[in-house]
Amino acid sequence: MMTRPKTMQPDTRRRRASTGQLMDGIMSLARQLPLTRQVLADQLETATPTQMEFMHAWMLAELESRERSKRARLLKQAGFPQSKELDGYDWTPLRFPVDYGRQALESLDFIDNNEDVVMFGPPGTGKTHLATALGRKACRRGIPVRFFTAAELVMRLLRANAENRLDKELTQIGKAGLIILDELGYVPIDEEGSRLLFQVVTNAYETQSVIYTTNIEFSGWGRIFGDPNMAAAIIDRTVHHGRMIRFEGDSYRKTHALMQ
């Protein structure tokens, strides 16, 4: 008489259940225990080559995941108004200093050296686009960036001062490797706002980089800040460790407007 082969399903289910419980236990431990190098070194002493390959792949995946999370967090914290990038950017309207060009700017070496960049030219010539694209590139390199319009930053500082948390606000801004100050001179700034803005620029001197976008030449910055002496002090710091890039040509918005 023939006998039926014994079924393996119960054993398979038990193995799957055991594996699932083990995975849950590992995940629970991972949430509780940051890696200790000595413990890791001790475990590696008895690990098989296959186990080492697994741990190596796991750690690489973890580092890559952390980098992705960090870049996403920096991009969100920066406060960019739009997702502008360098791909396809029209560089033809730009006039660089003799000793500084596009390649150097794209390398972000000015951030590494705590230098400033003044982007000067008429509205609509691509200043904000370029400043934003450079800032986003910096974030992807792990550099904290803060983007403000000049008017927005002044209002932010005035509000923080009124609420007795100005020091905290300045400390947060001071953590950025790059500050982008957009549309400087587009909106008048009162005396108190100018003083607070001056404080940000002074704090950044030789410790952070600042990108200014403006349609006002240095000779007109006294009108922006309402105080020629304050303007002169800011210009002095900017010129000492900075470069001016000139934007020429017609407004992109005007030449591509539906209403002609």
Gyration radius, rounded: 27 Å
Helix segment tally: 12
Oligomer: single chain
CATH class bucket of the largest domain? Alpha Beta
Features:
alpha/beta; 12% strand; 260 residues; elongated; 2 domains; 12 helices; Rossmann fold; six-stranded mixed sheet; single chain
Describe the structure.
- With 260 residues, the chain is of the alpha/beta class.
- The chain folds into two domains: 49-77; 94-255, Rossmann fold (3-Layer(aba) Sandwich), CATH 3.40.50.
- It has twelve helices and six strands.
- The protein has a six-stranded mixed beta sheet with strand order 1-6-2-5-4-3.
- Helix 9 links the parallel strand 4 (178-184) and strand 5 (209-214).
- The mean pLDDT is 86.
Summarize the structure.
This protein has 260 residues and is of the alpha/beta class. It is 56% helix and 12% strand. It is elongated, with a radius of gyration of 27 Å.
Which helices and strands appear, and what pairs or packs with what?
Layout: H1 9-32, H2 37-46, H3 49-78, E1 94-95, H4 102-106, H5 109-112, E2 116-120, H6 127-140, E3 145-149, H7 150-162, H8 166-174, E4 178-184, H9 191-204, E5 209-214, H10 221-225, H11 228-240, E6 242-247, H12 252-255
